[in-house]
Structure formats: C-alpha cells, structure tokens
Write a structure and sequence with these properties.
42% of the residues lie in helices and 15% in strands. With 353 residues, it is α/β, with parallel strands linked by helices. The chain is globular, with a radius of gyration of 26 Å.
Length: 353
C-alpha cells in the first residue's frame, strides 16, 4: 500500500484512462494529488471522517418508528449527549439478523429492538451487559434490557365505509374471514412486519394451529391485494377509505379516533396481544463505550414521558394507562416469544396464502 501511495506522490501514476502516460512525471498534478491524499489520510487516521469506528460517538442501532426515534433523540440532546451519538435505523428482520449473526462484533454500542429478538440474541451470543441502573418496570424483564415501548394489536374500522356498505362490525379475528368482507380488509404480512404476529398469536392461542390456518386462509383471501409489508399499512388504507377493516396497532387507532377521523377500533374476542421494544448495551469487553450505558439510562429516565404520548401503555412504576388506551381484552401468548417461534409462525402464514 505504501509503495502505491509513493508512486502516486512522485507523479508516476497519473491515470488509467486514455492519454495516461505511465512513468512520466507531471509535477503539478502530482502535487495536487499529494495534497488531496494527505487530507484524505489525515481524515481517515485521525477522525475516521465521522464514521462509527475511530470515533468516541456511541453508535445506536434501532428498529423503532419515527416517533420513538425522535423521543430518544430529544432525551439525549436535552441531557448533555447532543452530537455524542449516531443513530441508524433498520427494519426488524434486518436488524434481528445482524444481532444473531454478528453478536459482539456488531458495530453498535447500544440497540433498541423488539424484546424477543434481544432475548434470542442474548441466548445465542451472550452479547449484552447487565444494566447498571435500576429500571423500575411493572413487569419482570431480563437484567440486560429495559422496555422503551409496548404495542397492542386490534381490529380497526372505517366507520363511514362500514355504514355505506352495510357491513356488520366484526367482534373477533375469525370474523375477518367471513365472505361479506371480501375485498374490504387489509392486514400485514408477518414475513415483513411483527405487527402481523399480534394477529397470528391471537388465532393460534384461541383455535390452535390447524384452526388458525383455516381462519388465516380466509382472511388472506378477503384481503387480496391489501396484504401490506408495513405495520401501519392497513391503518393507512382504513384512513383513506381504500378498505373498511384492518388489523393494526391499537394506540394508532385510538389517536385517529380522538382526532375526529372516521376510524374506530374493536378489541377482538381472541384478545389484544402485545409486543415490547427494549434498550440493551452491547458487551464489547475492554472496547465497550462507557457512554452507552449512560445513554441507555438517559433514554429510560428521560424519553418515557414523550414515548408514552405515542405508545400509551404503562411500563414503569408511576406510569398509568388512561381508559381509552386500556385494551378491553389483554392477553399473553402461552409460549415464550422467540425468533424460532416467529419463524414457525411465518411458515404457517405462508402456507395460508
């Protein structure tokens, strides 16, 4: 590498295109290249040009929605960490794959991610440090992570479309397979969004895998082209009047209804199942960035006030869930949520299409 740079600095490599003259010195051009290379090398060696490596900045990987990212940034910026971190966002499947494949070799110092992925990555790679601060959660969580948000699923309806089309309101997830709703439903694909898992958990929990397959096949047939990749896709179609019924996140439907949109929600008879997202610090031994733990604590202690305005489910002592956001039928899936269980349910879903 040094010999290559020396040849450039001495003007012996001018180019490889037409008209380049190997071995012939062009002193003015050589000096220009030398200046440019000096600047480039200085940037790489001294500062890393703003990249995560070579910098003291904490690198944060997250699968969170825009609202959660903004809340975390606000908490960090307002508590002494402005310009001390870099946040990169990923889809849940992409970031989950990185956690499982890279372990402690992950570039990130701090992550926020679906809790089941955090737990599965820890089981496989032992990659997270125990938190050094006391997270006063209402429910028990592993020592190495603390929740930042919780989201529940529910049935969402466009009230105007329901009336215009003379549709009866569904009361259960299995109702979504009824022929009267053909072309009127939008749901999410579990292969791309964990929101769909909330629906599938409800079906399997209530009807078993064989019964869930039967119902889900009917739901997919009714949905047709309205099977969405994004978790918010069905709600957006309900809002726009493209479909009458969708399955999505309960707190988003509650917010739309409060704003006066023609949106309402029905807590399904099978239950409102939920997923949490948590913060965790990557254990890199002697190379662990000490500020990562400080930032994790800052997010938990200072971002929750804003986070709970978007994700209004109480997670910590002193928090409460208002009556509108308290689901009518909260339930927990009987098996521990893991990546392997998700893959199993993804395969079940594919068999229904």
């Amino acid at each position: 590498m040094n010999k290559f740079f020396n040849r450039i600095l001495n003007g012996k490599i001018i180019g490889s295109g037409k008209g380049a003259v190997p071995g012939k010195k062009h002193k003015g051009f050589g000096r220009l290249i030398a200046a440019g290379l000096s600047l480039m090398l200085g940037c790489v060696l001294l500062t890393g040009c703003g990249s995560g490596s070579g910098s003291d900045k904490v690198v944060i990987y997250s699968n969170a929605d825009d609202e959660a990212i903004t809340a975390m940034k606000n908490a960090l910026d307002n508590n002494g960490y402005k310009d001390a971190y870099i946040i990169q966002t990923f889809g849940t499947s992409e970031l989950g794959g990185k956690l499982l494949a890279e372990g402690t070799n992950l570039e990130a110092d701090l992550i926020t991610m679906s809790t089941f992925y955090v737990e599965s990555a820890q089981d496989k790679n032992q990659m997270f440090q125990d938190l050094t601060f006391d997270a006063k959660t209402l429910d028990e969580f592993p020592a190495y992570c603390a929740p930042i948000t919780a989201q529940e699923g529910t049935i969402i309806v466009n009230t105007q479309m329901m009336e215009e089309n003379g549709l009866a309101y569904p009361t259960a997830l299995k109702d979504l397979a009824n022929p009267e709703y053909a072309g009127m439903i939008s749901v999410t694909d579990i292969s791309s969004s964990s929101t769909a898992w909330l629906l599938i958990q409800g079906l399997i929990s209530e009807y078993g895998e064989d019964g869930a397959k039967e119902v889900l096949s009917g739901i997919y047939e009714n949905a047709g082209p309205h099977i969405e990749e994004s978790g918010s896709g069905p709600l957006k179609k309900v809002r726009a009047g493209e479909v009458a019924i969708g399955f999505g996140l309960r707190q988003q439907a509650v917010a739309d209804k409060a704003e006066g949109l023609p949106v309402d929600y029905v807590d399904p008879a099978e239950g409102n199942f939920s997923l949490t997202e948590s913060v965790a610090v990557v254990n890199k031994g002697d190379k662990t960035n000490v500020k990562a733990m400080e930032m994790a604590q800052c997010i938990i202690e200072n971002a929750r006030q804003e986070l709970i305005s978007y994700y209004p489910i109480a997670l910590y002592e002193g928090e409460s869930t208002d009556s509108d956001n308290k689901s009518g039928n909260p339930k927990v899936f009987p098996e521990k949520l893991t990546v392997d269980l998700l893959k199993k349910h993804q395969e079940l879903s594919e068999s229904c299409k």
